[in-house]
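Most newcomers find our protein records easier to grasp once they have seen one. To make this concrete, we reproduce a full record directly below:

…
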Amino acid sequence: MASKAASRDNLIQYVQIDGLVALKIIKHCHEESAGGSDLVQGVLLGLVAETANDKILEITNCFPFPRHNEDEEFDEVQYQMEMMKNLRHVNIDHLHVGWYQSTNLGSFINRAFLESQFIYQHSIEESVVLIYDPNRTTKGQLSLKAFRLTQAMMELYESTDFSPESIKASKMSFNKMFQEIPVVLRNSHLCNVLLCDLEEMAPSAPQTTQFLDLATSSYLEKKTKLLMGCVDDLSQDCNKYFNFQRQAAKQNQAKQQYLMKRQAENQSRVGRGEQPLGDDDINKMFKPLVAPPRLDSLLTSSQIDRYTKQINEFSAQSFGKLFMSECLQEERNTPAQQ
């Protein structure tokens, strides 16, 4: 079973995206989202290509979901079917391979995201979700990442049992929920030639460009605030679970005392020649407490893990710029050697 689950987790070695698809996703996210705060979604189309050693998911086309109000009746499934039918009529790739979504400062791991990916992956085994972060892209890095649910998480979510015992039995942790798939951007040879020509035709960058500008400080500040919020949510969830454990321990202690009292009373009744009392009312008096589900804590921990990794990446860049600036400043202040 372990080897079978591992093979399903490694179903796709990497995701290959056409440059035009990436531009369409970026254009949709920047046009529809107000400053990156509103989430936008769309559908990914393509095919699964197999080579001698790898299994590649090629994303060759996409289309967005239209903006609509919550009061309006909008059938996403019917809309997808109509769009794919029209694309098939004009001989464009129409096979459904996943969906994409924008995110605000890397905050996307929640119940709605988990449920949507589960539905996609349950119906289409090779499907992925692309997460695009417009705020991080404006800082000089194209943030386009692909994720899938692991096979263990698929089985756990399908069981709908998120009790502590079920989580422990499945050996699930926050870093085993999602699997990040490498993303490769691909352009045709004609497109690469055109990009080279445009680069040569483009004017040279001005000399006033600040390559060592620490423009990520505001991004890191916002990311740290979001991290603090997630830590508070996780702390509140842990307090709820600790309160449940204390209540369960008190109930168990009271139940044991009652059983000892009932046992002593039955012994005295037997000594008097009477029938001992039954134990049917014990379960009615001490009803078992229901443990709070642990899915929210897993999601929050996974989101915290994403925040810490992104903060680590940007901090490493900022420290590198600081060290380079320090060296340049020392060389400027050092008098020239005769």
In short: DSSP finds eleven helices and eight strands in the chain. Strands lie at 14-18, 41-50, 55-64, 96-102, 128-132, 144-149, 178-181, 183-186.
